Amino acid sequence: MQLKIAVLAGDGIGPEVTEQAVRVLKAVADAFDHQVCLEPKLIGGAALAATNDPLPDDTLRACLSSSAVLLGAVGSPAYDSNPGHLRPEAGLLRIRRELGAYANLRPAVFFPALEDSSPLRAEVVRGTDIMIVRELLGGAYFGQPRSMGGQPGARVAINTMRYTEPEVERIARVAFDLAMKRKRKVLSVDKANVLECSRLWRDVVTRMGRGYPDVKLGHQYVDSAAMLLVQRPTDFDVVLTENMFGDILSDQAGGVVGSLGLLASASIGGRVGLYEPVHGSAPDIAGKALANPLGAILTVALLLRHSFHLETEAACVERAVSVVLSQGARTADLAGKGQAAISTAEMGNRVVETVRASQRAQASA
Ligand code: IPM
Ligand code: MG
Q1: Which of 79, 102, 141, 275 does the annotation list as catalytic?
Q2: In Å, what is the CA distance from 163 to each residue of 18, 129, 249?
């Protein structure tokens, strides 16, 4: 198969982790006889520096003519005082919108080898396997009006949380369909005791749930869901939630399973799938070889699965990650007391080697 992929490494640790992810992608393509055709393009702060536009036309065109987009991270403190449309994040929000990627899947899976990395006791976190389904194109991130104005000392800022029924319906369908292939549980997270958007959300999700009699549907307020996520993470299967709640809960889920650096995501539902690790640009550790590339590497697995339906290849990457962790490979974010940490590139090497070794074992079997 021909895998035509736009690669937007972006800012901070984005380029470092993407480099390792691409190496793993090439290794798995090689092992399974696929051809990879990569188109590297600029986004975020890197694009602002070069073109004064966080999403240049040329990047957007390359994404739209690819079969998938692999993204590193976007965000840089250098642009903190820029107006909204000239911030790196504006490029990310726009690419999500232009691609129509409304369904953001954020799996948070606990690897048994990481019992010492989670802040939770092993018996609490063991068995955690959560799929957060985050609505990605609505809510306060995109609602109009939005503004900041007024005189210093008396300024007013406005954001609008907005959802339409069709927007809730389409994301709910994704969550229910995923639940059918998992443990058949959906927890819809909202703030229906306060927000109209959430009351609409709950109505629509409840109605959609009737079409899935085999799926056990629950509703939880977001504050309470945040507590339950650390108290009983193994109770969760599919979590269905709006844009900002999903942003917050997915970072928390990263902490629960040991490190945000492990989390991958797929943004699907539109013309072209967009794949990015959940962690962001982490400017404080950029360029120091400290970043964990496993989130980006697991993102490659999601890309293979969702954009190319290459399940065996995706599982091969996921298994390789599990293997290197069980062999004790730890980047700084995962290393416990007395454990040696390896660099970003060394972690990449280990995964690449494991993918190759599993291929050799297959070939000789
Ligand atoms: C994420 C990030 C982004 C978001 C930022 C960088 C705009 O935090 O993907 O979770 O809020 O969606
Ligand atoms: Mg986030």
Answers
A1: 141
A2: 33, 28, 19
- pLDDT, average across residues 128-156: 98
For 213-310, where are the alpha helices, taking DSSP H only? 222-231, 243-257, 294-308
Each residue's pLDDT tens digit, 181-199: 999 999 999 999 999 999 9
Q: Is 247 a catalytic residue?
A: yes
Q: Is 251 a catalytic residue?
A: yes
- Separation CA 199–CA 19 (nearest Å): 43
Q: What is the dihedral of CA 142, 244, 250, 265, to 10 degrees?
A: -10
Q: Which atom of ligand 1 is nearest to the CA of 136?
A: 12
Instruction: Report pLDDT digits (tens) over 95-123.
Output: 999 999 999 999 999 999 999 999 999 99
Nearest atom (ligand 1) to Cα of 265: 9
Average pLDDT over all residues of the chain: 97
The answer to whether the Cα torsion of 287, 289, 291, 293 is positive or negative is: positive
Is the CB–ligand 1 distance for residue 89 below 6 Å? yes
* DSSP-derived secondary structure for 122-189: HHHHTT-EEEEEEE-SSGGGT-S--EEESSTTS-EEE------HHHHHHHHHHHHHHHHTTTSEEEEE
In the reported structure, the alpha carbon of residue 32 is separated from the centroid of ligand 2 by a whole-number distance in angstroms of: 33
Tokens of 182: 């998992």
